[in-house]
Specification:
alpha/beta; Aldehyde Oxidoreductase, domain 3; TIM Barrel; 2 domains; 6-stranded parallel β-sheet; 4-stranded antiparallel β-sheet; 9 helices; 41% helix; elongated
């Protein structure tokens, strides 16, 4: 479920504000206060690794909040691939203010570009098969910008939060059944998607019969997933609506290709956001007279 541009813009502003507060409360940047306000600098954001860009808006917003007179020009956009040594953006402004914003801006850029780069690697392994899907396993407070980074890498967004749709996992089924839980969901929220986690063939069959919208095939081998897909296809032949199928649980990058052409629509992994390594990006400054 994609975020609206207005929602994302608001999330970027609040995320940057919180990040700057971590650095500047209560007494501001003590070291930068020693730098003459008469000094100006120009700088270049340079990639130290190959990757995919994400987080440009967070960087721009960081400098804007610190000092709106700092000018930044991007040479590429979110989703663009770049090579090590490539200049990603240039900036110009008061040296002291640039130094204050530098680390926060790089933290956003390195983290989010790392996510986009990781997602792009997963997408490449699908070879045009299943879509790569993110999860809610995100850093608290950064979900919106991390999900935007997933899109930049060529992936797709799962539900943004718990209000988007009903997702019935094993713990939600304590004291009830898939059938009862799906029927109750339909009664309470008729227009909401109902997503059911299945870790056995019997659960797949039950979720199909009660008309779940999405089935999460959890911790299954590619062979087991293929079998579940065939069960779903037979069910659809009887005239029933086909649910979307998601494979998840323990899937790593080197396993993506084996799941991608089983017939599932999505492959999801929390590692896309909670374990992506930060990309090495630097800001090289040159003082101006």
């Amino acid at each position: 479920m994609s975020q609206s541009p207005e929602f994302l813009e608001s999330a970027i502003q609040s995320s940057v504000q919180r990040a700057l507060e971590e650095d500047l409360v209560p007494d501001g940047d003590l070291t930068a206060a020693l730098v003459s306000p008469e000094l100006f600098t120009s700088g270049t954001f340079t990639a130290r690794q190959d990757g995919v860009l994400a987080g440009a808006a967070c960087v721009t917003e960081t400098f804007r909040q610190v000092d709106p007179t700092i000018k930044i020009s991007w040479h590429c956009s979110d989703g663009d691939q770049f090579n090590a040594g490539e200049a990603l953006a240039t900036l110009e402004g008061p040296l002291a203010k640039v130094l204050t914003a530098e680390r926060t801006a790089l933290n956003f850029l390195s983290h989010l570009s790392g996510i986009a780069t990781s997602v792009a690697q997963w997408v490449k392994q699908t070879d045009g098969g299943a879509t790569i899907w993110d999860t809610r396993k995100t850093i608290p407070g950064l979900r919106s910008v991390e999900k935007a980074a997933v899109l930049a890498g060529g992936g797709a967004n799962h539900r943004h939060n718990l209000s988007d749709w009903v997702m019935l996992k094993d713990n939600h089924l304590t004291g009830t059944t898939i059938t009862e839980a799906v029927m109750s969901s339909r009664q309470k929220w008729p227009g909401k998607t109902v997503h059911v986690e299945c870790d056995s063939f019997d659960q797949v069959q039950e979720a199909l019969e009660v008309g779940a919208d999405i089935l999460l095939l959890d911790n299954m081998t590619p062979e087991e997933v293929t079998h579940c897909v065939s069960v779903v296809d037979k069910h659809v032949q009887s005239g029933a609506k086909r649910p979307l199928l998601e494979a998840s649980g323990g899937i790593t990058l080197d396993m993506v290709s084996s799941y991608s052409h089983t017939g599932v629509d999505y492959i999801s992994s929390g590692s896309l956001t909670n374990s992506a390594p930060a990309l090495d990006i630097g800001l090289d400054l040159v003082n101006l007279d």
